[in-house]
Design a protein that fits this description.
Elements lengths: L4 E5 L6 H14 L6 E5 L5 H8 L5 E4 L16 H6 L4 E4 L2 H6 L4 H13 L3 E6 L3 H5 L3 H12 L11 E5 L13 H18 L2 H6 L1 E5 L7 H5 L6 E4 L6 H10 L2
Parallel strand pairs: 1-2, 1-8, 2-3, 3-4, 4-5, 5-6, 6-7, 7-8
The structure holds phosphoenolpyruvate (PEP).
Length: 250
């Protein structure tokens, strides 16, 4: 369906020197990648990561951005700032930001607008809590998150939006959605995109799965018809494991 993209989400891990070392380890292992490869690093690691990926096709992502261009927002980083330093991607709406830092569908929508206006490509995270899955409202929750985040996003801008389906219960827990569960929700996201735009936009959008994807389960997940890549947390911090996942994305 969409172009395959494997993105690492390093979360709050690695100093700048460690980031350089890890990217230098990853580089030769993914040189022949058949998919797009992105590393999502902490803000302070961005200069080191951008320097380390120079001359390669590896993209660099920040893990959040503010919706205003500048102003009295102590501790925040704007999309403009990221774009100005050469960052190409930003992860938005990650469940850890929604759960621990008060991100809502509305603030994710505002961040999305700012990121797209700044020229960034967005990796938009959506996904249900375990209680929501158990109550049978996964599709409703994920469709709502998707629709609100994409409010005001044009069909043309959708070329710079990647959607990561990340069931919250599978993130960092070692629990993975089954191949069928992952595919079912990724397909539902694509149907939602078709409803908001048209079938061509839906067919072209990259829909990733994320949630304890690792070197052992990646091939089967990535073989699903509607899974176009992965957002990888823990396993992205190990060069060899990340490379296996990249190699499985064909
Ligand atoms: C994530 O942080 O987006 C993620 C999927 O983490 P993990 O792979 O560790 O579950």
């Amino acid at each position: 369906m969409g172009k395959y993209v494997i993105a690492g989400n390093w979360k709050m891990n690695k100093t700048p020197a460690e980031a350089t070392a890890l990217i230098n380890e990853i580089k030769p292992l993914v040189a022949d990648a058949a998919c797009d490869v992105v590393v999502g690093v902490p803000f302070v690691d961005l200069p080191a990561a951008l320097a380390a990926v120079e001359g390669t096709k590896i993209g660099v992502a920040a893990q959040n951005c503010h919706w205003e261009k500048s102003g009295a927002y102590t501790g925040e980083i704007s999309a403009e700032m990221l774009a100005a330093m050469g960052v190409g991607y930003v992860i938005l709406g990650h469940s850890e930001r929604r759960t621990y830092f008060g991100d809502t569908d509305e603030t994710v929508q505002k961040r999305m607008r700012a990121a797209l206006d700044a020229g960034l490509t967005v990796i938009l995270c959506v996904g249900e809590y375990l209680t929501q899955r158990e109550q049978g409202v996964t599709n409703e929750v994920v469709a709502m998150q998707t629709k609100i985040a994409l409010g005001g996003v044009s069909a043309e801008e959708m070329a710079r939006v990647i959607i990561a389906y990340e069931p919250v219960w599978a993130i960092g827990t070692g629990l993975t959605a089954t191949n069928e569960q992952a595919n079912e929700v990724c397909a539902m996201i694509r149907t939602t995109i078709a409803g908001l735009y048209d079938q061509a936009v839906a067919d072209a959008v990259t829909v990733q799965y994320g949630g304890s994807m690792n070197a052992g389960n990646a091939a089967a997940l990535l073989a699903q018809s509607d899974v176009d890549g992965g957002l990888i947390g823990g396993a992205s911090l190990k060069a060899a494991d990340f490379a296996v996942i990249v190699g499985a994305a064909k």
